[in-house]
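Appendix B: complex inputs.
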Amino acid sequence: MGKKAKKKRLVIIGNGMAPGRALERLFETAPDAYEVTIFNAEPRVNYDRIMLSPVLSGEKSFEEIVIHGDGWYVQHGVILYKGAKVTSIDRAAKTITAEFIPSSSGHAPLEPSVSVPYDRLIIATGSSPIIIPVPGHDLAGVLSYRDVDDVNAMLLAAKSGGNAVVIGGGLLGLEAAAGLKEQGMDVTVLHLMPTLMERQLDPVAGHLLERAIKARGVNVLTQANTRAILGDGKVERVELDDGTILPADLVVMAVGIRPNAQLAKDANLDVNRGVLVDAAMRTSDPNIFALGECVEADGEVFGLVAPLYEMAEVVAAQLAGDAGVTFQPKATATKLKVTGINLYSAGDFAEGDDREEIVLRDAARGNYRRLVLKDNRIIGVVMYGDTGDGPWFFDQMKRTADVSEMRETLIFGPSLTGGIPLDPAAAVAALPDDAEVCGCNGVCKGKISGAIAGLGLKTLDDVRAHTKASASCGSCTGLVEQILMAQLGDAYSPSAVQPMCGCTGHGHDDVRRLIVAQKLKSIPDVMQALMWKSSGGCATCRPALNYYLLSTWPGEYADDAQSRFINERVHANIQKDGTYSVVPRMWGGMTSARELRAIADIVDKFDIPSVKCTGGQRIDMLGVRKEDLPAIWADLNATGLVSGAAYAKGLRTVKTCVGSDWCRFGTQDSTGLGIKLEKFLWGSWTPAKVKLAVSGCPRNCSEATCKDIGVICVESGYDIHFAGAAGLDIKGTELLGHVASEEEAIEIIAALTQLYRVQGRYLERIYKWAKRVGIDAIHAQVVEDKERRKALHDDFIHSQSFSQADPWAERVAGKDAHEFTPISVFNMVAAE
Amino acid sequence: MKADTHDWKLVGTLDEIPKQGARRVHHGDRTIALFRTQDDQIFALEDKCPHKNGQLSQGIVHGNCVTCPLHNWVISLETGTAQGTNEGRTQAYPVQVRDRKIYLDFTLNQVTC
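Resulting structure:
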């Protein structure tokens, strides 16, 4: 055979999500057919533009939304030119020419431009935001909302607070407004039309949306036409047609997009609003495809991701030689990615003589749904509030199913409409293979179940990696899990979705995420919003929820004593006979004659049967009657002794050796550092107990290498260890890092504790958390990334400002008095 | 209609017990735990878990059950029986609430008939 057939040269102009998807498909079906070169005008890899709003609101980082990292391009032999803008296409010579954009760091490119030949070319130049040409639109501080550069500019502007004006009350404008509000700016949305998102929503849903947006503190002005943007060199004010003047430090224009078709036009390709393509996605030159937001097909242009991904499938198939796959624009559903606001719309919902509508309104619960029917088929759906049934309606609509049989109950969704039973697993099993599960990535059920069966997928992450289902906004995660469960049965590792307890199907991580995302601030709120199956939870979920709320909303959440285990409710440890034990704090294990004398007096006065030293260098008084606790605490407080929290899922003890104070081997003041750490960390609530130790030299007399967090002092500074265990499991610690100063050690330990506080599952000790999330991931956040470390440290300090009050003193002063006395006493001596 | 043959004793008021909480009544050397549920029902059980005599009054109240603080047995507030796979029963006492006042019958001699 001799030499292998030479690969064809495929050149792609643009590195957005659509060409990225096309390449993924092409590499699956015809991995060796093309030698690929990509030109990207943005100086970076391919990322998920749908997720820009979560980046703006702070829920995700840029790294989390990267679709293809640098490694992916290397792995597939793709040459990626970053920061290179294609300036011309020579169709006769079949070459393109690109100019390098000087990078912001002032790095001059080696050559000003490059020419590359192609056999096949894909134009994927995307779209540009429309900038309204009002006076002042070119002032500094006027931004659009299209890419990561825009988001970074907004985040920078938001740092100094101030006023933001968002022009455009559509999908992007509202997401931008919510994100800027989240970043602390005062935000006004200007919308030209009478109701928000009028292209996707009917007026009723538009008003509900406006109310919800206003409820988050964003000002909304409808029928507001911008006359001018004013300012001296930079934005200062926005003036409306009616004369209203709004102060503005930042203006975001989000009024729409326009296909970038100029390059194609210059190459004499057929262009209308966008680059014209046929059903095979070919332009008027058969060697040139166009793909994505720059395209016009069947008279339509496209901005949502689902049709763009469908185009990508077509281009990939055509390139691989399958001419039968063609593009037909389909209805697309819209979702707003503003946390806590759920709306869903698809199809056509204008009124008309030949149309009927079914409306369901539940004002108290903020629910609204409207179906538009024509000839007994759903042609439009608008939902606000509970949107869970959206995909089902959408599926009925796409399949143009005759709904006359179920008309009576149709509006209540599949659970009441017969056909599909109430049980979610059965409902998923009953979905047809072509039912769309993941709207963001256009993945239907058949594709997911096919991948599970064909590739032997076992976990949610597997499914995300191979099908992209639930990999973008994640709202279909539950459905995908149901498909996994239905298909694998017991083989589906339930660890992925281990529910917190029998009261809920949600796992700990989901509950935590939703508490943050939906801003749930009380246990009843959580149970309501996450549809708890029991009326008041149980002894497993209630303490966990109480902790999650307490750690998520410091200073805001009111602790629920009745959801705490008895020891934390009365700040003492219950014993087998119903008496309690009392352990005062001894900072770093240090005590004094005065404290010991006070303890001795208390033991005598209250006739306490046992006194013992604990493993954490404290003194434990055992066998105390519950009624005596407040009086004992009063005596301890009088000597300056406070609660040792020996009962807490929180900081317990910092054990120390005598260090350089006394020990001939001591390298640093380990006792002093232990005391500092304990005074810094005390009072904090954590997922499970936290015990520390500080040793003054590697002989490690305080046994720091089996603690949750341990410090070993050495001549050059401090080795910080963590994730040890010496209980049910025995495990040596992992080395987290070495630092030169006490200050740095304390900052890292506070950051570590805070990360554990927000990531650890209730009752999960540090070593188990570290095993679950990975030592490297923790190291990256609390050691390497100094900004992240500082932020965690500051979060911890904020939380501590609400938690460092001695619970014993509070109860001596009368708090929870009902805990310590019987409700009534009947003396039986006289009666019997 | 039969006359009420209970020997009701006033032991306290609804407001003295936190919702989803409990208080103790000492009666000679017996201790009875009074429970108040989320929906303001009141139940009375001897304050001893059938497992290892843990004080049920110190447990977490959820629905119409309490979880014992010692080993997490779940006990029905209505009947005193252990739930799930655990077996055992603790004494339940008749209790009634009138005008937010709680009355308890310590006698235990009105079983049936």
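Chain B has one domain: 8-105.
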